[in-house]
Specification:
alpha/beta, 20 helices, six-stranded parallel β-sheet, about 20% strand
Length: about 575
């Protein structure tokens, strides 16, 4: 027996990839999947790990490595899987050579996402098998199994996780790394070149593969029937299985580790041995619809919600008719989402609000510009959408309408898909002002590097994409870099550019306040003799500032980092800068 340690689900996936002999990993950070790569890079002497500019690229990198004959993986969150869909659907046709796994982390409850979607549905459409572990131990073991199944059935395999699994801890047994011999790459145009004639011939292979796998899955150890009280039989998978075992330990359970394709014969056998079938699955009725289509009577979404996370209490209430007494919530202060003290985004939004501008927003920390008291961001759809949205508004409403609008996007998101949107704007003769809030990191997911930071996931110094030069290289004449905290210059520049009948880009080049490289030598303190109690300094909503009963303000010295935004807003010089 190997050493046993407690691991997060994401950490266990990384360990499983290491033990499985993975040689290449590519990913784009996105909660709740980010920590997979951050843990896998700890084994960088054995595994090449990278941050890709987006999930499509990450998937293509992994597929290329797998076709060459080594085990490879790509990791992403569920909305990132949408970006990866283009290569994913075709990868099902080409198949692989070395094993390939795609980790997709769904987010029931939308803890950190703009929508709630079920990866199993996309996998069904793409004809790619899906494994779903229930705890950290299975996360590691299923990862290793994914590569074996991938090579056995000549297909990419999806490992589906959820926020609860990704960020829960469990006991994991460590094993040695076993690296299979690299598979020999052999040129095979009919298999790997998906022109229509070849794709037509590959499609029957895909259908046959899924049929064979569904039949074989009846004997997979990860699909198992646990017979106890047969008055009720619960079909479940993933984290919901742990809720079933907690709430109804004596029920008969069919635990599915492979959730696509489903082992029909095993499910039919289980249903025949229990009096009542209940299907307990988070999000969409993926298992339920297939089971019912086979003529099996079952209960599912009639009694369980299609939204959010499940729980043991949900099961108790629905099946055991227990009245669950909700515990009184802990008396803790409300913590609405807010930009950090000293965040350069707050300064930008302060200027935009002063100028009474609307902002087409994007995914990242700067989305918080939509909430009070800033309330500047009007739209947030998906990665890179701000620039395209702005372009669509201009084409629909005309140039004059755009005098009141700008697009706001972060540096990492710009490298992800904003570049495509900006190129489209140039190509189709758009007008409008784009603000790239360059804080030198991928902030919201925990400060990961990207193509414009000059450092790789492996920790190597590399060439950094020069965002201003890139913008100029695609034909934009009006490109400016401004310090986000230079309110006078930023205000002047924004006012000028929104009036321009052309494309302009303003880059606020100011590092994230939480970067370790930042050294704060100043703090701001109030001068009560000069304070007129006008409240101007409070308008940006910096959490370091509070209003006293007499109308004056206090500045929390433990939170202030001397960004100077409040000091610039005070017309009476009632806020002073001192050494920290």
């Amino acid at each position: 027996m190997g050493e046993k340690v407690i691991m997060l689900g994401n950490e266990a996936i990384a360990r499983g990839a290491y033990e499985a002999g993975v040689k290449v990993s590519s990913a784009y950070p996105g909660t709740p999947s980010t920590e997979i790569s951050e843990n896998l890079v700890k084994y960088k002497d054995d595994v090449y790990c990278e941050w890709a500019p987006n999930e499509k690229v990450a998937t293509e990198v992994a597929l290329g490595a797998a076709i060459s004959g080594v085990r490879a993986m790509a990791s992403m969150k569920h909305v990132g899987f949408n970006v990866a869909a283009d290569p994913v659907y075709t990868a099902a046709y080409t198949g692989i050579n070395g094993g390939m796994m795609i980790v997709v982390a769904d987010d029931p409850g939308m803890y950190s996402s703009q929508n709630e979607q079920d990866t199993r549905q996309i996998a069904r459409a793409a004809n790619i098998p899906v494994l779903e572990p229930s705890d950290s131990a299975e996360a590691k073991d299923f990862t290793k199994l994914a590569f074996e199944l991938s090579e056995t059935y000549d297909t990419p395999i999806i490992l589906r996780t959820t926020t609860r699994l990704a960020h829960s801890q469990g006991l994991v047994e460590l094993c040695d790394r076993v690296v299979p011999e690299d598979r020999v790459y052999e040129k095979n145009i009919a298999k790997y070149v998906m022109m229509p004639g070849n794709a037509i011939r590959r499609h029957p292979f895909v259908e046959d593969r899924m049929k064979r796998m569904a039949e074989d899955a009846c004997g997979f150890e990860i699909n198992r029937a646990e017979y106890n009280d047969t008055s009720i039989g619960i079909i479940t998978s993933g984290i919901p299985y742990t809720y079933v075992k907690e709430a109804m330990p004596n029920a008969s359970v069919l635990k599915l580790g492979l959730v696509h394709p489903l082992p029909r014969k095993l499910i039919e056998e289980f249903a025949s041995k229990v009096d009542k079938v209940v299907i307990f699955e988070e999000l969409e009725p993926v298992i339920e619809e297939q089971v019912k289509s086979w003529g099996i009577e079952a209960v599912g979404k009639e009694i369980f919600t299609i939204q959010g996370e499940y729980s043991a209490n949900m099961l108790r209430k629905a099946l055991l008719k227990e009245e669950i007494q909700a515990k009184a919530p802990a008396q803790v202060p409300a913590r609405p989402p807010i930009l950090c003290p000293g965040c350069p985004h707050r300064s930008v939004y302060t200027v935009l609000k002063k100028l009474k501008l609307h902002a087409a927003g994007d995914i990242g920390c700067y989305t918080l510009g939509a909430v009070a008291p800033l309330s500047v961001v009007d739209t947030t759809i998906c990665m890179g959408s701000s620039i395209s949205t702005l372009h669509g508004m201009e084409k629909g409403k005309g140039k004059e309408y755009m005098k009141n609008w700008v697009a706001v996007i972060g540096d990492s998101t710009f490298m992800h898909t904003g570049v495509n949107s900006l190129m489209n704007m140039v190509y189709n003769q758009g007008t409008g002002t784009v603000l790239i809030l360059d804080n030198s990191t991928t902030g919201m997911t925990g400060h990961q590097d990207h193509a414009a930071t000059g450092k790789t996931l492996q920790g190597d110094i590399t060439k950094a994409i020069n965002i201003p030069l890139f913008c100029k290289s695609i034909g934009i004449e009006h490109v400016y870099e401004v310090n986000a905290f230079d309110l006078e210059e930023l205000t002047k520049r924004v006012k000028e550019e929104v009036e321009r009948d052309d494309i302009s880009v303003i880059i606020t080049k100011t590092p994230c306040v939480l970067l370790k490289s930042n050294k704060f030598t100043k703090k701001c303190v109030p001068n009560y003799d000069k304070c007129k109690k006008c409240g101007a300094c409070l308008r940006p909503g910096c959490p370091a500032l509070t209003k006293n009963e007499d109308g004056s303000i206090s500045i929390d010295a433990t939170m202030c980092n001397g960004c100077g935004l409040c000091r610039q807003l005070c017309k009476f010089n009632a806020i002073e800068e001192v050494d920290a």
